[in-house]
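Slack export, channel: ligand-projects

TW: morning all. Re-posting the request from yesterday since it got buried. We need the structure predicted with the small molecule present, not the apo form. The ligand is pyridoxal-5'-phosphate; the SMILES is in the block with the sequence. No rush, but it would help planning for next week.
GE: picking it up
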Amino acid sequence: MINFNENIDRKNTRSLKWDGMKNLFGREDLLPMWVADMDFRPPKEVSDALKEKVDHGIFGYTIVTESLNEAICDWTNTRHDWSIKPEWLLYSPGVIPSVHTAIQAFTEPGDKILVQSPVYTPFFHMIERNSREVAISQLILKNGRYEIDFDDFEKKLGSGVKMLLLSSPHNPAGRVWEKEELIKIAELCKKYNVLIASDEIHADLVPAPHKHIPIASLDESFADITLTFMAPTKTFNLAGVQASFMVVPNKTLRTKIAAVQASDGFSMLNTFGSIAMEAAYRHGGAWLDEVLEYIRSNIDYVKETISSQLPDLDVIDPEGTYLVWIDCRKLGLSDAELKKRILEKGKLALNFGHAYGPGGEGFVRMNVACPKETVIEGVKRLQMALGK
Ligand SMILES: Cc1ncc(COP(=O)(O)O)c(C=O)c1O
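GE: finished. pasting the full token output, ligand included:
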């Protein structure tokens, strides 16, 4: 049993979550439950592998080894029933850099790229910073669960969209898309000739009974139009190590995106990224199962406590991810007022929903990948901020 209750002091460790609050929120005296990293140590085998490299003491140029490719293929096979080939893999320092590359490789300035809002804020930035146009199909909230409005989705796909930027599982809606939904998405993308850029960084963070399905795994014709982005960084709390991979079964697409990567000057993973990735995928399975259970109990605590003590708030129960999306709209506060109360009265750093695009207004996102004590304190602060 791993002790996820341990409170590890992360202040003054160059942590964005703990040391970057002044920049974003204008103050430092907050409990950080915002950006998506965990306050847990990764699996011991990962730290041991990194230590071994540090002790070896030479940090020269690094190659991608067959054994790294094999560790990834084994992982997608055992965890996601997806049998992939090593030659389909491309590496990158992160999913964000990969999506940028995909946008540059397969769309032109001015092209429309579809997102399903409310969605991970950088989706908007990545599209806009490449001078492409954001097209939005808003998710609909029905009985506390988000769904795709397929009529609107199809209408948008048919409006000249070139690429779908899919969040699967969806951040912040917490949905783990089901097989039928994924089939409908992919069939419509095929019909309208739209490429799927599938950001599956949260793929592993899905406890039973839900199951993540890589959209490209469902049919060869789907794989042919899909670029899948995955990483061990959310799964095993390695975001600072900066390592991820793309799975691109279609050779034409793969050659093209690899060429754009090369033209950007990217040629290799950093040594620590490649070591951490392999160790995590080879040895991290048991750790992941434990952390998912711990996170689930944190989610249950937030749900139950908010439902009994803050009845004006509605918790959207996440099927995956460690991010809890909370509907505060019944309070009738503006986004500015909601933010002010949470920061100033609650001294709590959350992500504020309006940054997630249309449909995010009046919501907040709470990261519960932290010791239970932090979650208890976070909910208490939310009560101080928003309670009667
Ligand atoms: C949906 C989604 N994509 C990408 C990222 C970040 O990816 P990376 O750190 O690999 O660039 C995050 C981080 O929170 C995320 O939630």
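GE: first-pass observations. The two ends are 40 Å apart (CA to CA). The longest strand covers residues 161-167.
TW: perfect, thank you
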